[in-house]
Structure formats: structure tokens, C-alpha cells
Specification:
Layout: H1 2-37, E1 39-47, E2 53-60, E3 66-70, E4 76-82, E5 88-90, H2 98-103, E6 111-112, E7 118-119, E8 123-126, E9 129-132, E10 141-142, E11 155-160, E12 164-173, E13 184-193, E14 197-206, E15 210-211, E16 215-216, E17 234-237, E18 241-243, E19 256-257, E20 269-270, H3 280-285, E21 289-293, E22 302-308, E23 314-320, E24 324-328, E25 352-356, E26 371-372, E27 378-388
Antiparallel strand pairs: 1-2, 2-3, 3-4, 4-5, 6-16, 7-10, 8-9, 11-12, 12-13, 13-14, 14-27, 15-26, 17-20, 17-22, 18-19, 18-21, 21-24, 22-23, 23-27, 24-25
The structure holds beta-D-glucopyranose (BGC).
Length: about 400
């Protein structure tokens, strides 16, 4: 009897030991699988004329999304995401090599800084002192000037966690670079997650009072076929108002209702359905090239817009902490720039949703402030999230 009891005890002890070893193994497997889900890889991409080495980082998850980012301009050179059949294709315009980006690019995929969009005549004042910025767009300053953040080489570092792969880019812009006061220490962190979202966190500090307004200039074509225009792709924007512009695309100062205009995207509407309407503002922009005043400005990081391509089923949702978004319908693409897939980028073959403060804010006192003081930290977050339906 005693022997049987002892035998049973030993048997159950052995069982517990085997079970716990198996569980540990399972857990280990789970953790390794999680780590294997996201990855980041570094490759050489080219060299700038002054010998600067440019790398390309590839961020990958296990849901079929891949993002390529180069250290020149922090440019997103490719975003591959699945269509409704599960086929991953590239959905952002760009080039295959560095030379093309350096030769001529309408800011394809780039980080824009120090100031997203235009500042009238390149002039603004801070504490009674007038500053003159580089003028590079007719009489105006556009996207940070002649050598903006899109044309500098950023210092990169990588980080991976169980469910994310992140690329941190740092650039120190010197005092008076392109005419801006203050040394601006800037960090942009791209984070790819398992849910097919790409976070962009922009942070900056300054050693002198200055202005800052950072964004990303990706041109999307959700079809994955760059020979098509985006006119059949459907957009919704959570905005009751937008900013009408003058002939040089500087906001007039008026904050206009979108109601009963071709600028009303509160319900999903195809980009092309009203783009040729007889409308003074559309004529001034050559299509859509305006800043929408977003709703829910006190709500932090929230959904502000959705784009959808009915054919591929791809959906892009944009979340941001910013008060505005520049919706640009690729009007200046004119069939001269070579496309990644062959052929050229024709008019309206891509659209941009540039989350930002309003253009020309330093000269328009009614617009939310873009001033950054030395004791403050600039922080702005935008997310591109992909899915299908
Ligand atoms: C501007 C356009 C400009 C484009 C590319 C957009 O953000 O609003 O007017 O042509 O960027 O430079």
C-alpha cells in the first residue's frame, strides 16, 4: 500500500515538473515569435556629393507591412501594405536611388522643416525683430527653404521591442540656418507596429525663441499602381472649415466653412468628383492645395481623415495631434519625374495629407501659435494606419 502511495506521489511530482518545463518552453517560444514579428534592417543607399553616407532602414512587421526610410531627408522611400487579397504593394511615390532625390524631388516622402508650407515673402517677426528666411517659392518661403530638413542627412539609431520597430532620426539645425533663429535640436521617430500603423513623433528644443512646424510629405497612391491617378480614391476629412488662399497660395486669413463647397470632405467623397468645379479657390490651387482646419483640436491624437481606394480595398487612416492638414492633390506633378515602377509621375498620381499648424502662422495672429521658447519642448505626433475593406 505504502509503495503504491509513494509511486503515485512520485508520478504526480514528475507530471508537475514535465508540465512546468513545457509551459516555460511555450512561453519562450511565444516571446521569440513576438520578437520575430517586427524587424529592422540597415543597408547602404548612397553618398552625398560632400561624402556623407546615406543609409536605408527597412522596418518590417508580420502583418505584411514594410517601410523603407533613408537618412537623407528622413525620406520614406516606400511603404508596402496588403490589398484586400493580401498582396503587398508600394503605396507611396518616390525614387529608387539617392541621385534622383538629390537632383529634383517635390519633397517625396520627406521630413519637412523647420516650417511646413509657406511663409509670406519669407518674413516674420519675433519680439519686434524681423527675420528674413530663404525665399524659394516665387516670393515666398516654402517647406523650410533652399536646404530644408528634406535635404540634410539625419543621424539614425534603431530600437525594437516585442511589437514595434523604431527608427530615431536626429538633426541639429544651426542658429540662423535658412534664416531661422536658434539652434534647433530635432528628433523624428518613426515606429512601425504590428497593426500596420506607422507613428511619426516629432520633437524639438531650441536655445533661442524661434518658430517650428514639422510634417511629412508622403504622396500616397493607394492603388499601388503609379500609372493611375488618385482621382477615384475616396477621402474624408474631419474638418468643418478650411483656409482660402491668395494667388501665391498664402492663406488670406479668412477661416471659411466647407459647407456647400468642393472643400466639404466631411462625408467620404472621391478626390476627383469636384476637382474641376468652377470654383475660385480650386483655380488658385490648381486643384486641392489648402489647409483644412481640423475639428477636435483639444482632443490630442485623434482620427482626422481617411482615404480609401475602392479597387484595391486599401484604407489609410490619419491620426494627429495637429490643428491642420494640408491636403495637396499632386497638381504640380507633370509627367516629367521618373516613377519607381517605370514611366513617369503624372498630374494627380499622388495625394499628400500633411498634418501641421497652418501656413503663414507667424504672420497671422489669429492662427494657433508656432513659437517655440527655449524652456519648452515641441512635440507633435501623426500616425498613418493601413487596413483593407
Ligand atoms: C504645397 C504645394 C507644393 C507641394 C510640393 C505642398 O505642401 O502646398 O503647393 O507644390 O507641397 O512642393
Amino acid at each position: 500500500m505504502k509503495f503504491i502511495k509513494q509511486f503515485l506521489y512520485s508520478l504526480s511530482f514528475l507530471g508537475i515538473v514535465i508540465l512546468s518545463v513545457m509551459c516555460k518552453d511555450e512561453k519562450k517560444k511565444e516571446v521569440t515569435q513576438k520578437i520575430e514579428k517586427v524587424s529592422i534592417e540597415k543597408n547602404e543607399f548612397g553618398t552625398t556629393p560632400d561624402g556623407g553616407k546615406v543609409d536605408r532602414y527597412t522596418l518590417k512587421n508580420s502583418s505584411g507591412m514594410t517601410v523603407d526610410i533613408i537618412t537623407y531627408g528622413g525620406i520614406i522611400t516606400s511603404i508596402k501594405v496588403p490589398n484586400k487579397e493580401g498582396v503587398s504593394e508600394d503605396v507611396v511615390l518616390g525614387y529608387n536611388n539617392l541621385d534622383r532625390y538629390m537632383e529634383s524631388s517635390p519633397y517625396f516622402g520627406a521630413i519637412i522643416g523647420r516650417y511646413g508650407n509657406r511663409i509670406a515673402k519669407g518674413k516674420f517677426s519675433l519680439d519686434g525683430k524681423e527675420y528674413s528666411l530663404a525665399v524659394n517659392n516665387g516670393e515666398n518661403h516654402l517647406h523650410g527653404g533652399i536646404k530644408g530638413f528634406d535635404k540634410v542627412v539625419w543621424k539614425a539609431s534603431e530600437e525594437t521591442g516585442e511589437y514595434y520597430a523604431a527608427l530615431k532620426l536626429v538633426y541639429l539645425s544651426k542658429d540662423m540656418e535658412e534664416g531661422y533663429p536658434g539652434g534647433l535640436n530635432t528628433t523624428v521617430t518613426y515606429t512601425l507596429k504590428e497593426d500596420n500603423s506607422l507613428d511619426m513623433l516629432y520633437e524639438a528644443t531650441t536655445d533661442k525663441k524661434t518658430i517650428v512646424n514639422l510634417t511629412n510629405h508622403s504622396y500616397f497612391n493607394l492603388s499601388g499602381d503609379f500609372s493611375k491617378t488618385v482621382l477615384d480614391q475616396v477621402l474624408s476629412l474631419n474638418a468643418d472649415k478650411y483656409l482660402p488662399v491668395d494667388n501665391t497660395l498664402i492663406p488670406t486669413g479668412e477661416i471659411a466653412e466647407v459647407k456647400n463647397t468642393p472643400f466639404d470632405f466631411r462625408k467620404p467623397t472621391s478626390i476627383g468628383s469636384r476637382i474641376e468645379a468652377d470654383d475660385d479657390q480650386l483655380k488658385k490651387g490648381g486643384g486641392y492645395d489648402h489647409c483644412w482646419v481640423l475639428n477636435g483640436q483639444d482632443k490630442g491624437h485623434r482620427l482626422i481623415g481617411t482615404a480609401y481606394d475602392p479597387e484595391s480595398g486599401r484604407v489609410l487612416e490619419v491620426f494627429t495631434t495637429e490643428p491642420g492638414v494640408q491636403f495637396y492633390s499632386g497638381n504640380f506633378l507633370d509627367g516629367t519625374l521618373p516613377a519607381k515602377q517605370g514611366g513617369t509621375y503624372k498630374k494627380r498620381s499622388g495625394f499628400c495629407l500633411e498634418t501641421q499648424h497652418y501656413p503663414d502662422s507667424p504672420n497671422q495672429l489669429d492662427f494657433p501659435s508656432v513659437v517655440l521658447n527655449p524652456e519648452e519642448k515641441y512635440s507633435s505626433k501623426t500616425t498613418y494606419k493601413f487596413s483593407t475593406k
